[in-house]
Design goal:
437 residues; alpha+beta; nine-stranded mixed beta sheet; 11 helices; 23 strands; globular
């Protein structure tokens, strides 16, 4: 994409309303703009990152055996009355009355709606287990939205819902999502720590949050230092096999957010205990028959009787992850995107756009990068070199490829790695081989 044809309204000054790093940098990098309190438009650069994260989340859900669908943002209030949550949920739920005086709501989550879909379609244990997910916008009317998209009112979320005949089946579904989340966050360039969590308004008796460490995290986290070196296998996981050993390994050491941390009961001290700040990026729940019983979501069992299904739900904040990644990966100059989620892999910078030699060399490199399928943002503007470098550092693309008059005469280009800051002079061919190889 040529920058002269792209929409990238970057800001030189930090907006006064931005309190945390991700909010400041997302506004300055032209990724988002506020429409109203806690509600944002996603501009082209931010939208590209959002879609990259969404696709990685989708791929890992599919690998774990979940099946994608799409549910609406607006739900009938009657379904929530069946479960008993309509009046319990509080003012965070945006309640709506349509032109026919029917009570509706903008969904903050989808347990009731998916249970209704299930009960009208599935009758037998032979159709289990089943895990359905979608990636959709949600709304919670936060009393004080803040921190940009980290604590907004409208947010983009992946939520999955599992259905099983009994507890053992439900626990296997829970383990599948537990492992899928570890693999998802690894692919996003994050190290997520699972911690036991409260179930909150979702309900249930088993729950884990996945937290990434960041200095500006919203809550305190206490964990065993060894957890920071835990890793999930790169190879394919057998999601139909026994995943309990993996879950047991990751939950064998102490890890708690501040709401679950008891200093008196903590088995760690000194250097063994990490005390840090963290950002929640995923949450999984097993809640058994909390929704299936009151909503009569039952199946026939092998012995011919009927039983309510065991359920779980599993959320990942896709839009929240954009901010979380920035909080965990930035420097004084701007964002430092992990390559899998970067809006473009390469920022191609023509230092002197009006110079024929620079323009020809840059156009040639741009054409070859596109032919190789490499996502490239080509700065072909006539701004100053300093302005171009500052903007590229701000938006945080993994690689910068710089073409200038001196390099054109010498037959070289400069390649900069945004994360390490390392620069090297290479022939154009060598640079292309390194970036496309």
């Amino acid at each position: 994409m040529r920058l002269t044809r792209f929409f990238l309204p970057t800001l030189k000054e930090t907006p006064s309303e931005a309190q945390i790093v991700s909010h400041r940098l997302m506004l300055r990098a032209g990724m988002i703009r506020q429409a109203s309190a806690g509600i944002y438009s996603w501009l082209p650069l931010g939208h590209r990152v959002l879609k990259k994260i969404e696709q990685i989340v989708r791929e890992e859900q599919d690998r774990a055996g979940a099946v994608e669908m799409l549910m609406p943002t607006i739900q009938p209030a009657d379904l929530w009355r069946e479960s008993g949550r309509y009046d319990d949920y509080g003012k965070e739920m945006l309640r709506i009355t349509d032109r026919h005086e029917r009570e509706m709501l903008y969904g903050p989550t989808n347990e009731e709606l998916i249970t209704d879909i299930f009960r009208n379609a599935v009758r037998s244990y032979r159709d289990l287990p089943l895990n359905l997910y979608h990636i959709q916008w949600k709304f919670r009317d936060e009393v004080r939205p803040r921190f940009g998209i980290m604590r907004g009112r409208e947010f983009f979320m992946k939520d999955a819902y599992s259905f099983a005949l009994d507890y053992d089946g439900a626990r296997h579904a829970y383990n599948q999502m537990f492992v899928a989340y570890l693999k998802t966050f690894k692919r996003l360039g994050l190290h997520a720590i699972p911690v036991r969590a409260e179930t909150g308004p979702i309900g249930g008796d088993l729950s884990h949050e996945f937290i990434i460490l960041a200095e500006t995290g919203e809550s305190a986290v206490y964990c065993d230092r060894q957890l920071l070196s835990f890793d999930i296998a790169d190879h394919d996981i057998d999601y139909d096999g026994d995943l309990q050993p993996i879950v047991d390994h990751w939950t064998s050491l102490y890890a708690a957010a501040d709401d679950m941390h008891d200093p008196a009961a903590c088995p760690l001290s000194g250097d063994a205990l990490v005390e840090a700040r963290g950002i929640e990026v995923g949450h999984i729940f097993h809640f058994g028959t909390k929704y299936s019983k009151p909503m009569n979501a039952v199946v026939t069992t092998p012995d011919g009787t009927e039983a309510p299904v065991e359920m779980g739900s599993y959320g990942i904040g896709v839009s929240r992850l954009v901010g979380g990644i920035i909080e965990a990966s930035h420097d004084d100059a701007g964002i430092v995107w992990p390559e899998p989620v970067a809006p473009f892999k390469i920022g191609l910078i023509n230092i002197r756009a009006k110079d024929d030699g620079c323009r020809d060399a840059s156009d040639g490199l741009y054409r070859k990068l596109l032919e190789a399928g490499v996502e490239t943002l080509y700065d072909d503007t006539d701004e100053s070199a300093g302005s171009k470098f500052a903007q590229m550092d701000l938006i945080g693309l993994p690689w910068q490829l710089v073409v200038g008059p001196r390099g054109v005469k010498a037959g070289t280009v400069e390649l900069k790695n945004r994360k390490s800051g390392e620069r090297e002079e290479l022939s154009a061919e060598s640079a292309l081989n390194k970036l496309t190889g």
